[in-house]
Write a structure and sequence with these properties.
alpha/beta; TIM Barrel; eight-stranded parallel β-barrel; about 15% strand; binds erythose-4-phosphate
Length: about 220
């Protein structure tokens, strides 16, 4: 399973990537609007931190077909690395996906709320599809049903499109998509930290140190010279 950071802060990514095995970064226009510096600076700073295995997904802001295709090409030229162009699922968006696929440009169809949007994105040639888990739940739909249907449909019909689940608000939702067999997730920094945090674990670690130092002359390491 691949786990990406949903964000655009290069310092935050650097810190998290130091101890979490992260597989890349996704951004969107709303994330960039909240970040420090211009949108272009944020994207380039993050891109420069990624290794070859880590993927980057950058979303176009345009909503019209021709501009989407042109913007996608500008992003690729500026970033000068393999980048997945995020395109919202819309009539212009799907047209852009088909056109970019024809030029071997990888796309991630985003803003997906329904199974059929995901199927149509796959048929259009998207490399990834990004269902919005928490936002689906907020619309009184059940994200677990939708995600299972997408995974099942892709398997049944042999689509090579991968599922990059997005928009999570808790780790339970992450486990839900894992159970469905989703290949990748993109998570906010809060959820990323929560993946390994547990109060009881911290208390256990403190108890190990206390037990050892009180028994062995205040040493908190073994085999000291
Ligand atoms: C990721 O690429 C999506 O744009 C993002 O996860 C949406 O998350 P939100 O619903 O928290 O805004």
């Amino acid at each position: 399973m691949r786990i990406l950071m949903d964000g655009s802060d290069a310092d935050v990514f650097r810190n998290l990537n130091d101890y979490l095995p992260l597989d890349g970064v996704t951004t969107n226009p709303s994330i960039l609007a909240k970040g420090k510096g211009t949108a272009e600076e944020q994207v380039l700073q993050i891109a420069n931190l990624l290794d070859k295995q880590q993927t980057l997904h950058v979303q176009v802001v345009s909503t019209k077909y021709e501009q989407m295709v042109e913007e996608a090409k500008r992003i690729i030229e500026a970033v000068s690395r393999n980048v997945f162009i995020k395109i919202p699922v819309s009539p212009d968006g799907l047209k852009a996906v088909r056109s970019l696929k024809g030029e071997s440009i990888n796309t991630t169809v985003t803003g997906v709320y329904t199974t059929m949007q995901a199927v149509m994105a796959a048929k259009a040639g998207a490399a990834y599809v990004a269902p919005y888990i928490n936002r689906i739940d907020l619309t009184h739909s059940d994200s677990e049903i939708v995600i299972n249907q997408i995974v099942q449909a892709y398997q049944t019909y042999g689509f090579s499109t991968k599922v990059l689940a997005a928009s999570f608000k808790n780790t339970r939702q992450v486990i839900g998509v894992m159970e469905a067999g989703v290949e990748e997730v993109t998570l906010s920094t809060d959820i990323l930290k929560n993946l390994i945090h547990h109060k009881e674990t911290e208390m256990s670690i403190e108890a190990f140190t206390e037990d050892f130092t009180s028994r062995f002359e205040n040493r908190n390491e073994m085999f000291l010279k």
